[in-house]
């Protein structure tokens, strides 16, 4: 028979199962991401309706461009969340693209001629860094794909060599 303290200890360890806790937290996190997706989608629909209503009034190019870029930012964020749900990772490329469009939107809203030259220089440096990040990501992906292809070729060659050895009598 088990003592009461041993029963309590076993039930504590059963309750404190790390895999079950992590799985539960991942489910909650996925629920939050789904709710964010629904919120972003509703926001996009509302902003799209606002754009069509603003087209009935005299056109203000800056406002319409700003709204369109805002919807594009929301679309990219939506895509980022969908990728997260599918692959359980954040896509760096999409996140950088969102950052670039966000910076350009702010520049368009504030009009380039009204921004001090120091801020324009800082924005240019930031955009250059984001572009380098995108290029580095693409370069790293190409390297990893090349390594993966080489490993797959070696595996298939080894498999062929073993199958040939099995067929040839000694």
UniProtKB/TrEMBL annotation:
Subcellular location: Cell membrane
Membrane topology: Multi-pass membrane protein
Regions crossing the membrane: 27-48, 68-85, 92-109, 115-135
GO cellular component, one term: plasma membrane
Location (main, coarse): membrane
Superkingdom assignment: Bacteria
Keywords assigned by UniProt, alphabetized: Cell membrane, Membrane, Transmembrane, Transmembrane helix
Keyword Transcription annotated: no
InterPro entries referenced in this protein's UniProt entry, alphabetically: P_starv_induced_PsiE-like
Name used for this protein in its record: Phosphate-starvation-inducible E-like protein
Species this protein is from: Chroogloeocystis siderophila 5.2 s.c.1
């Amino acid at each position: 028979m088990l003592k009461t303290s041993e029963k309590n200890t076993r039930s504590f360890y059963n309750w404190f199962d790390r895999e079950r806790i992590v799985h539960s937290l991942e489910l909650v996190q996925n629920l939050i991401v789904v709710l964010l997706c629904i919120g972003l989608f509703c926001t996009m629909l509302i902003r799209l309706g606002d754009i069509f209503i603003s087209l009935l009034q005299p056109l203000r190019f800056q406002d319409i461009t700003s709204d369109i870029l805002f919807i594009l930012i929301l679309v990219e964020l939506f895509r980022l969340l969908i990728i997260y749900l599918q692959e359980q990772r954040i896509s760096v490329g999409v996140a950088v693209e969102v950052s670039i469009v966000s910076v350009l939107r702010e520049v368009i809203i504030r009009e380039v001629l009204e921004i001090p030259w120091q801020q324009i220089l800082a924005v240019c440096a930031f955009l250059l860094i984001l572009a380098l990040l995108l290029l580095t990501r693409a370069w790293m992906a190409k390297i990893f794909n090349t390594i993966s292809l080489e490993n797959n070729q070696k595996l298939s060659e080894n498999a062929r060599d073993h199958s040939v050895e099995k067929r040839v009598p000694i």
